[in-house]
Amino acid sequence: MADPAPIPVSLVLTTEADRERAEGLALALLERGLVACASLHPVVSLYRWQGQLERSEEVQLLLKTNPGNLEALRRSLGELHSYDTPEWIHWQASSDGPYGRWLLEPLPLSPGGEPPAPAGTPGDGDPAG
What is the share, in percent, of the chain residues with pLDDT greater than 70? Predict the structure, then answer.
């Protein structure tokens, strides 16, 4: 049996100021059908901003989507994000087999289309983000 073909995936990193904002952003992007999954991780960020060294406790979001949604995701992130200059780091990856196919399932299949109804209910064996 041949190995399954890799499925292209786009990954995006951004951060939000706190868990409530991060979850709100993730839910809005999921509802719009722009991401298949958002993983949230608390982080401490050290950075230079407007000439000053800063330290912030933030929540990092790892957003998983298909390459065709990347530009719409970028626009929506700019619209919905609480920061004036949201982090936007993205890269291409691939996934094989059932997980890769699952990542594409909840996303719109045609331009302007509505996201399909969920395939199952929580706890029915869907893969973790």
Answer: 79
